[in-house]
Amino acid sequence: KVLEWLQCIDCSEKHALTRRKRQGSTCTWLFRDECFTRWYESRGGGLLWMYGKPGAGKTVISSAVIDGLEKRNCTLGYFYCDYQTAGDVQVTDILRSLVAQFFRQSDKNWLPLFPDVQERQSRGFPLPSDHAILLDWLLRSSGLHERPIVVLDALDECEGACGRELLTIISRMNTGHLSFFLTSRDEPQVRKAYEEMYKDAFFFSATISLEEKWRTRRDDLHALVVEELGCRRTLRCLPDRVRTKILERLVEKSDGMFRWAQCQLDRLEKCIGTGEINHVLNTLPEDLNETYYRILSAINEKPFWKRVVLRVLYWLVVSLRPLHIQAVMEAVKIEIGKPTIDDEAGVIDEDCLLKVCSSLV
């Protein structure tokens, strides 16, 4: 009951989904990295901040860190600050989730050690909104474990001041036993907060720039593209020389953006011949912004596609839970303000829906 009372957001489903996106041999470079090794061996009170541009694979790397450290018998509390839920997430939600995770993983009878928590729950008191109380609970609950580590992914996607508040709170946690692994884009507000924390708060503190590690990470992108070329039916049937050209061009032009490479594979999958494939490879967009601009421009030229995509995005944004593709297919038949379902507004099958939405969902 206490755990149910505490935890409002469960990131385990997000973690499982992200893990499935990860190729088996990828992300191993990080565990050999000098900064990561020094942070891990600092045995607590350490802070490691990994930053990179959008689409660089930070969330997938976070999932690898969680799984890798669990195999080393560390106790992990983690939170994915996903942009899809960031608008509703408060600092208190994140802290409560971490506390609940550390409680749940303890094999000790921890309730007698936390009479204040038990009393609040049993008396029906509301969850505390005071950061100091939740911070105290986090420090004490993590203290139930020999090697507790917190992983916070995509701090920059927290709404408004949430990310900054969280960093400020972390900077006050010079406990000597709780380590932090953080990821975000290299934004000025995050960097300023990190630099303040670096000066005052931690026994060990370091950063990892994914851009600077690009040569080390090329093998990961190579593995991703090889896997995609082998599992996408249209691309799998191409001649070896064409598949090799796709592989070489995407790895060469990606600039470390895994998401960029996946978007180009989506585009290549729709090509009807090697001539079009060569054209796509010779006119690749420079970055993710240009990639999405091209996708949206192409959709905008097709009125029916545009209507379907807008409805799909609308339902995904307002839905209170993740939607199965079958539910989305039914939802696009609904036009707000009309009393009946418009079957002609639907799509033929799942493949058609995915084709229309391209790389947007």
UniProtKB/TrEMBL annotation:
Leader sequence residues: none
Origin superkingdom: Eukaryota
Pfam families referenced in this protein's UniProt entry, alphabetically: NPHP3_N (PF24883)
Domain Nephrocystin 3-like N-terminal: 26-185
Xref: Gene3D superfamilies: P-loop containing nucleotide triphosphate hydrolases
Keywords: Repeat
UniProt keyword annotation of Transferase present: no
InterPro entries linked: NPHP3-like_N (IPR056884), P-loop_NTPase (IPR027417)
Keyword Lipid biosynthesis annotated: no
Protein name: Nephrocystin 3-like N-terminal domain-containing protein
Source organism of this protein record: Pisolithus tinctorius Marx 270
